[in-house]
Amino acid sequence: MSYEIRLHDLSKIYPDGTVALGGVSFICPRSACTTLVGPSGSGKTTILKIISGLLDASGGTVSFDDRVMTHLPPEKRNIGMVFQSYALFPNMTVLENVEFGLLVRKVSAADRRRRALEALESVQIAPLAQRRIRQLSGGQQQRVALARAIVFQPDILLLDEPLSALDAKIRQELRGELAASLRQFKITAVYVTHDQEEAMALGDQVVVMDHGKIMQIGTPFEVYARPANEFVARFIGTANLYDVEIQRSANAHFHIRLGFSEVSVAEDTFRQRWPGVAGGSAQLMCRPQDVSIAELSNAHARIRISSLLFLGDRIRITGETENGKTMRFEAHNTTKISVGDVVPIRLDLDCIHIIPVAD
Amino acid sequence: MHSPRDGQGVAAAAAGVAHPALGVATPAAKTRRPISLWLVFCALSSLLLLFMIIAPLIVCLWGSFTTLKVMGAGSERGAGWEQVTTSRDEEKAESQSAAASVDLGVFAKGARNIAGSVTTFWYQYVWEVYGGTLHLSLMLAVISICICIVLGVLGGYALVRYTFFGKNLIEEMILLPLSLPGIAVAVALIETYGVLRGSWVIILFGHLLYTLPFMMQSVTNTLRSFDFVTLEQAASSMGAGPWQRLRYILLPNLKHAIIVGSLLVFAISLGEFNASFLLNTPFNQTFPAALYDSYTNDSFQVSSAATCIFMFIVIPALMAMQLIGGKEMRDIGGA
Fold it and tell me: B252 to chain A: which residues are within 8 Å by CB?
């Protein structure tokens, strides 16, 4: 059985007046993974702890479908939780750790063992069942923590930065596995991370947070390609952001003045893509991969290259526009350029995004 | 040219000369690191330390098993001896003690007539005369352990887990008795709980004041060494209520701390003298206080035997403590 999590007007204010969460409402859809992403102090872990019951909200309600959970202690919520530090019990073996959730539910010994081994099987570490916790690597501990959280078939799975304690390489490997596992479990999951790549890779829905407020809720594609505001644009991926003036011209086009260049978009297209933008001041966002070195004849601007970063498959280029704005873009690793060169570039107009200026 | 290497070379040469028995040096032995002066100093000071601690114990052990004949005249100058020498005549003394009372002490019981060189007479005597005090001391130690476990675990948990007003003050207050002279603590206790003066309960109070800090320290150290708050949160997220968390998570992880703390409490309670000496009465005498009595009233042999009995009880406890402490380091430290 899996539920949707409904959060209504959740707030958390500490006695010293710190506002950790300022009135947050959203729904984590059934059997899907919602990732909460934001810088530290954004309130993402606070939300997770309130959902789990480890922390009391100062206001608002938490419900799983129609069941209001706000004041239930964690042990009465039937949740599975994976902690950042894994929090495996050092006094127990791997198997005993996984059995624990069943033990406290008074499942018979034989059943416990069978189900625990199944859970360990599903995260591919059944051979380690008899090990002590201190004999496990970080990656193995993470798997035990996951097995332990799902073995009693919780209604909700909560994950608090489960990969952040691992080395970069193992983190990448496990990210893929974790994504597969979450789909396989078909469980409503809430996943907290500060890593925007992880948030997009694992989330069916991404909630971007800052300073206890929601900045944007959307699919990974939406938050990446159509950020709602400057914060999201800068936090998710790398973005070039420019203040622009937008003007509607007589020939049914919108002219976007960048200061170092000007691009125009057909009115129909513009209205369809950015219905909220009327004209006047706004911000234009283009991702590094939306900018390419072009022929001089159809270039949008000329960039003086100030630094090059070789990333293996591609080169990350940082340059300056004619009016001194920074632009970051990418080129294939065979591109012959060097610092100081002036190259013509072109923006991919299908990929640029206009962000209305905040009031 | 006195580089450290030269120094080592000299030391190696010296070692070589000092141990001609090692004789035929294989090529492997030649490349082995030479024994440094530093090591020699360490070994010497360790030996000295060992000697300082062990020598008195050996003397006690020797004294507790030997007869007066082996000990010689020197032992007959104890306070207890004078009681008998007043009678001048051995035979007379013996008949007197048999007729009158045990007041005449160990010599009246025929201690001087024991044949041979080895005897368990002193132990029998100690058992007979001071057995009751040993019983009281053991009882106090066991009760102290029980109370310390409950107070130490609950109090230690509260102190580590929660922040509350006056927390630091409480922590200091718990440690305070350790820095006060036993006399001060005893006088304060007598002034405050005068009603209990005749009972062993007041001695127990004194022992608790001196033992609780150690149990507390043992428990809080362990609690601070791992993130038990998160472990508890994990357990509760998995459905464990407060009692299940206590039973399956907190107590198992505190097991070693409690055992080590208990042994420490045992050793301290059993050996506590300063406060007990003032708090005890002739009817409620603890073993260390009785030891003092035996030093002042009985012969060297009797006090030796009493000391040895004390050691036979305490040393195994200390060894167990070390063994378990080491195991704890291996078990929890790596996790």
Answer: 91-92
Same domain, A66 and A141: yes
Does residue A65 share a domain with residue A13? yes
Q: Which domains does chain B have, with CATH numbers?
A: 128-333 (1.10.3720.10)
Q: Looking at residue A344, what is its pLDDT?
A: 93
Q: How far is B280 from chain A (nearest CA, A)?
A: 43
> Domain range holding A223?
5-227
Domain boundary among A193, A227, A261: A227
Q: By mean pLDDT, which of A49-58, B97-106, B242-251 is the weakest?
A: B97-106
Mutate to test the interface with B, among A79, A99, A104 (most CBs of B within 10 A): A104
- Measured in angstroms, the CA of A104 and the nearest CA of chain B are apart by 6
Considering only CB atoms, B240 lies closest to which of A75, A91, A148, namely A75
ipTM: 0.83
Q: Which tops the pLDDT comparison, B76 or A248?
A: A248
Please report whether residue A233 resides in a domain: no
Residues 26-55 of A with CB under 8 A from B: 52-54
Tens of pLDDT, residues B86-104: 444 444 444 444 444 444 5
Reduced 3-state DSSP string for chain A: CCCCEEEEEEEEECCCCCEEEEEEEEEECCCCEEEEECCCCCCHHHHHHHHHCCCCCCEEEEEECCEECCCCCHHHCCEEEECCCCCCCCCCEHHHHHHHHHHCCCCCHHHHHHHHHHHHHHCCCHHHCCCEHHHCCHHHHHHHHHHHHHCCCCCEEEEECCCCCCCHHHHHHHHHHHHHHHHHHCCEEEEEECCHHHHHHHCCEEEEEECCEEEEEECHHHHHHCCCCHHHHHHCCCCEEEEEEEEECCCCEEEEECCCCEEEEEHHHHHHHCCCCCCEEEEEEECHHHEEECCHHHCCEEEEEEEEEECCCEEEEEEECCCCCEEEEEEECCCCCCCCCEEEEEECCCCCEEEECCC
Chosen domain end from A227, A250, A274 = A227
Whether A185 maps to a domain, the answer reads yes
Same-domain check for residues A79 and A211? yes
Q: What is the per-residue pLDDT across A58-89, written as a single tens digit (0 to 9) for each?
A: 999 999 999 999 999 999 999 999 999 999 99
Same domain, A326 and A261: yes
- On chain A, the residues whose CB falls within 8 A of the CB of B165 are none
